Amino acid sequence: MNYPSVERLCKQKVIDLLEQHVPGSDATRFFLKLMLYSTSSFLDPNLSPLSRVYRIWFVAFGLSCWSS
């Protein structure tokens, strides 16, 4: 796995650009947000514990809804 590529792809700036310039990219933006939240909840030292828990639960809930 090429993790630096994933890291660049999951930046909030990329998600915002998709929203502005690519109509119908809702699912792609949601998937990128899930990737961003899952990685940052474990790796970002600046997040508060409450933010970490929120992001991990957002990912868990999002994946469970997606699989249904």
General description of the model:
The structure is a single chain. The protein is mainly alpha-helical and 68 residues long. The chain has one domain (3-67). The mean pLDDT is 92. It is globular and about 35 Å long. It has 4 helices and no strands. The longest helix has 19 residues, at 49-67. The chain has helices at 3-9, 12-21, 26-43, 49-67.
Rg, Cα atoms, Å: 13 Å
Our count of domains comes out at 1
> In what range is the share of β-strand residues?
under 5%
Query: What is the residue-averaged pLDDT?
Result: 92
Number of helical regions? 4
The beta-strand count equals 0
Measured as a percent range, the helix fraction is: over 70%
Strand and helix order: HHHH
Q: Give unreliable regions as ranges.
A: none
Q: Which class best fits the helix and strand makeup?
A: mainly alpha
